[in-house]
Amino acid sequence: MFQDMYPSDKEFEAAFAEVEFNSALKPKYLLMSLENNINTRDMIGKSKVTLEHILPKKPSNEWKKDFPGKIHENYIHRLGNMTLLPEKPNKELRNKPFKEKKKEFKKSSVLLTKTHVSKYSVWNPKNIDKHQRFLAKSALKVWFINWDSIK
After folding, report:
1. CA–CA separation, 150 vs 97, rounded Å?
2. Among 22, 33, 126, 127, which is most exposed with the fewest C-beta within 10 angstroms?
3. Mean of pLDDT values over 40-48
């Protein structure tokens, strides 16, 4: 009965792989939920984390080379372009090039940032898509419903 109300795993993953957000609250919740699924310590209590737009909202000329005009608009609000960082490094990074951001990501206490975002050598549309597909697959583990156990 309730199963008809929910999307299939395939539909959920496809929608999650394309999702965009114009505000910080929902993506921060989603990323914190994904982080808490892989991180065994209480991240919220340990440090204040903020939402980092890897491709900055106000890109420098260096960023504009890979993300001119409409391409920037198409990727800035994608969940795959967002990660979590403690407040201080996030403020310091602002619109710095990815090479500089990556150094800070490698030191992060946030595992999604440290182990997944920092593995990319460049940050471009292809890697934002790739990262978002990874997040979509991870989301299936967090919001999985085992219908067989409910019947």
Report:
1. 49
2. 22
3. 61
